[in-house]
Tripartite tricarboxylate transporter substrate binding protein (Martelella endophytica), 319 residues
Amino acid sequence: MNFSISKRIGLLAFAAFAMAPAAAWAEYPEKPVQIIVPYGAGDAIDGTARVIAKLLQEHFKSPFIVRNVAGAGGGVGTAEAAKAPADGYTLLVASTGALTARPIMADAGYETDDFVPLAELVETPIAVAVAADSPLTSISDLVTAAKDGEVTFSTPGPGSSQHVSMSDFVDQQGIELTHISGDGGKGAVTKALSGEVDFSFVGAPVYKSLAQAGQLKVIGVAADEELDYLPGAETFKEQGFDFTSSVWFGLVVKKGTPNDVIASLDGALKEIAASDELAELYEKFSYNDAFKDSAGFAEVIDASVAQNKKVLGELGLAK
């Protein structure tokens, strides 16, 4: 009799132990979740992250808090996210350059595969802009100026997708440019507006309101077609340069995060993708509707890693 009771208690204890992780995961999140944005407040991607945080908070009925950790073209915030526990309570807004280029260029404090993709949120072309009173009016002007003297430009930071892409273009043209970090897209544009640099090279939507106000000129869009929200801004291809480039942003989480937590976040983000709020966000910031789930985003990341290995290797910038 005693043996039977002991055996039964043992089985019940084992069953409780086996069910505990599933129960804990089912309650996710049990505390506030932070979303690290590796750029300064006020950028379009910061605004995007705050809308996503709001929608996740409404879905889970639990706080999702955006925290800006700027520096090194997104590298500082990405490195901090890589050090976080793999429990789903730290999400990262990952960017093309910080996630897939910086680890190839140097010891960034993390590797691309330290993270698991959740969803691609944004993909947008990159463009060249100059101050309204700049003598540069085309990409040909820019190339000629670089051959005749020093030309400076700014991007969100070293190792950013924009920096890598412009380095590739510079190599194609056989010219030299001096890069100055903007510590974010907004900072890069500010440097161009103030005349601190000759041009900025960031995501095209960042220029929309400034171009409409006549404060800057967009002299080249690295896309296959002109953009409706930047009327009159010709593509590189229209100007005789076979060059396109884009940047993406998406949510990732630390590798090793429980599968049930990842599945819960994936499901929530798929619901958000179909929401009117996200459609309004894309319209507000003139983003392409580029939402991809975890599987689709994984393919995007793999393609970016392969491309960056090729380009950075050819440029002699790989570690």
User: Anything to note?
Assistant: The mean pLDDT is 90. The chain has two domains: 11-17+22-124+247-315, 125-239. The first strand starts at residue 33 and ends at 37. DSSP finds twelve helices and nine strands in the chain.
